[in-house]
């Protein structure tokens, strides 16, 4: 709950090891924390918190990074239950390029339980108003007496019911 799956898909043609760092933006002025090393033959996946923005940076142990892998570019707010991929490409000059996190699925709306609770509350309020009006008019009493009790000899609106 309150998490998304983030995967880094590495370019398998070049032999460059990458280091992944992240931190929640909830932690004000905190340094990025080390998550994992990704070799040229591996991919890496982990869960990120969706309540706040996630600060993310991918650093190359060798080779040159482009601006696309820096924290200023990769910091994102993720959707709950979303699956995200960041694709890493390495060109002939060993320049490492990162894509922005790409949403790979269509996660359900996280606010559905709130919508249901509001709907139930409005429905109960309308029922309360409806039955209160029936009670004030006396209709509720007449319906209850006619349906649940023996009505022989009962007077309703001046008419004797047999």
Folded structure, characterized:
- The chain has 3 helices and 11 strands.
- It is α+β, with helices and mostly antiparallel strands and 162 residues long.
- The strands form 3 sheets. Strands 1, 4, 6, 7, 8 and 9 form a 6-stranded mixed beta sheet that branches.
- The radius of gyration is 32 Å and the shape is rod-shaped.
- Strand 2 (18-24) and strand 3 form a beta hairpin.
What is the architecture of the largest domain at the second tier of CATH? Answer: Sandwich
Structural domain count? 2
Roughly what is the average pLDDT, rounded to an integer? Answer: 85
Name the CATH superfamily classification of the largest domain.
Answer: Domain of unknown function DUF5300
Helix content: 10-25%
- The general outline is rod-shaped
Overall structural class, as computed from helix and strand content, comes to alpha+beta
Strand content: 25-35%
Order of helices and strands: EEEEEEHEEEHHEE
Low-confidence stretches: none
CATH class of the largest domain: Mainly Beta
Distance, first to last CA? 64 Å
Strand runs, count: 11
**What is the name of the CATH topology of the largest domain?**
Immunoglobulin-like
Rg for CA atoms: 32 Å
Question: What's the structural blueprint in terms of helices and strands?
Answer:
Blueprint: E1 3-9, E2 18-24, E3 33-38, E4 44-49, E5 54-60, E6 64-65, H1 71-74, E7 83-90, E8 95-98, E9 102-103, H2 112-137, H3 139-148, E10 154-156, E11 159-161
Parallel strand pairs: 1-7, 6-8
Antiparallel strand pairs: 1-4, 2-3, 2-5, 7-8, 7-9, 10-11
Transmembrane segments: 112-131
Keywords: Membrane, Transmembrane, Transmembrane helix
